[in-house]
Design the sequence.
């Protein structure tokens, strides 16, 4: 029996999600069991990138959350109201929820999760943080046995995209922001991105999951990127830093806790520092090389040590991946209640995949030759590679090893079989002493 879903919103994320769900080939087989029953929008007459059968798209969003056949409500409309009321009503009607709405969860998570727990339904929010990066479920499941000490993240795609282009191209803030909006990265009101508020929403969600307590968003210190100038970017570069908007949540050690000397009882346990601000990051730090719309979240826990989650932090496809994986988790759960095993925890390995023989696999190669110092050797090498369809990216002769000249070749993407054939012939050349190295190039 299929699982019926209702989607609230058919904008950037809603459209990406519908497209993913409707193109299940090559994806998890359980996707085929999902039926999109209704999609709620503000203006049903608007032309859309996805075509849905007549009657599915409606502006009567209330009828979706109370629809008796719908099992899961996917809220990708954004904003606080009516999203909050609709989610609460859906929960009241026994629906599981998938949401990408970090602004709502960071402000009303308490109310929503309490209602969900009472109703015995789940609220899934993978897409709320880090776009397509799986970080919420890993923190809730795979890493939950660790004592998390610090989370340091680049969690806003728009601002990272802006800062990267300001740094690499010297582009102006306003121009790049317009591009980020056009690419679907920015919020409907990009103030939330630029002022760091979106990152604050996300770090409070991550902190809440990782440290096991509620986060009062008003207590999260927040500075945006508006004041970051080209001059600061240039000075930072000279000093060996890049400027990134970091969201940081840290467990205070007893001695570092600002509350440790307070006579008042600690209001939350544990005591945390949670903040968002532009930060000079040393160029050799793992977060320094996270550019463009990419996000990364560096988690430090005990006993694990450091683990970093990296990937596209915004945009239709990336976010649809996270939303759809939450939907699939719920579908698996609904199915597991009727069968004995959770289909996402079992392994599908009854059939063998076809693995290409190594001769047919394609990669680039680096080869180093030691040759007699004769005229025409480079030409002969080039001709022989050409004979076997091996196209060369570069061929250089830099030095000597004793009497022998050292020639280094890097190929374009070629089949391993053709390289082997060419090298077999090259080995027969009089001028070739040996081929000491053959390495593959990524
Ligand atoms: P969007 O492009 O502005 O789309 C919003 C959709 O919701 C539109 O289809 C709109 O209908 C509908 N909608 C809004 N208010 C409505 C109302 N009152 N009644 C009925 N329909 C309404 O937004 P988005 O970028 O997809 O973002 C959606 C959510 O995902 C937000 O919470 C956002 O923070 C989150 N998110 C976005 C991204 C991203 O990369 N964009 C990534 C992660 C999370 P119309 O089409 O008729 O106007
Ligand atoms: N506006 C958000 C960003 C979307 O730029 O990161 C993803 O949450």
Sequence:
């Amino acid at each position: 029996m299929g699982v019926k879903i209702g989607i609230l919103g058919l904008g950037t994320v809603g459209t990406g999600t519908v497209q993913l769900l409707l193109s299940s080939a090559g994806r998890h087989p359980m996707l085929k069991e999902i039926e999109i029953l209704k999609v709620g929008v503000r203006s049903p007459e608007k032309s859309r990138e996805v075509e849905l059968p007549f009657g599915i798209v409606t502006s009567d969003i209330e009828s979706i959350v109370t629809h008796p056949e719908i099992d899961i409500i996917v809220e990708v409309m954004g904003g606080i109201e009516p999203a909050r009321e609709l989610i609460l009503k859906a929960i009241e009607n026994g629906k599981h929820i998938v949401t990408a709405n970090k602004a709502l969860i960071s402000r009303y998570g308490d109310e929503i999760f309490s209602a969900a727990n009472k109703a015995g339904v789940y609220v899934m929010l993978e897409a709320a943080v880090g776009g397509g990066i799986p970080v919420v479920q890993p923190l809730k499941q795979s890493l939950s046995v660790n004592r998390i000490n610090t989370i340091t993240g680049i969690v806003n795609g728009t601002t990272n995209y802006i800062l990267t282009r300001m740094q690499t191209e010297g582009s102006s803030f306003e121009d790049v922001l317009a591009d980020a909006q056009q690419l679907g990265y920015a919020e409907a009101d990009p103030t939330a991105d630029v002022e760091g508020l979106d990152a604050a929403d996300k770090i409070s969600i991550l902190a809440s999951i990782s440290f096991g307590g509620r986060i009062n968003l008003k207590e999260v210190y927040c500075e945006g990127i508006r004041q970051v100038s080209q001059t600061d970017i240039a000075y930072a570069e000279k000093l060996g830093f890049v400027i990134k908007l970091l969201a940081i949540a840290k467990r205070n050690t007893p001695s570092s806790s600002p509350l440790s000397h307070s006579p008042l009882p600690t209001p939350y346990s544990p005591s945390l520092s949670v903040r968002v601000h532009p930060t000079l990051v040393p160029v050799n730090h793992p977060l320094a090389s996270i550019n463009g719309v990419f996000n990364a979240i560096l988690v430090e826990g005990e006993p694990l040590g450091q683990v970093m989650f990296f990937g596209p932090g915004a945009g239709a496809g990336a976010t649809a991946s996270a939303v759809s994986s939450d939907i699939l988790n719920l579908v698996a759960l609904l199915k597991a209640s009727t069968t004995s095993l959770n289909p996402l925890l079992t392994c599908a390995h009854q059939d063998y995949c076809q693995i290409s023989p190594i001769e047919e696999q394609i990669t680039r190669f680096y080869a180093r030759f030691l040759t007699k110092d004769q005229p025409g050797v480079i030409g002969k090498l080039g001709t022989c590679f050409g004979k076997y369809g091996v196209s060369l990216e570069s061929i250089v002769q830099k030095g000597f090893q004793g009497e022998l000249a050292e020639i280094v070749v890097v190929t374009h993407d070629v089949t391993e079989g053709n390289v082997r054939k060419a090298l077999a012939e090259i080995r027969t050349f009089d001028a070739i002493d040996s081929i000491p190295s053959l390495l593959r190039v990524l």
Q: What stands out?
A: Residues 316-336 form the longest helix (21 residues).
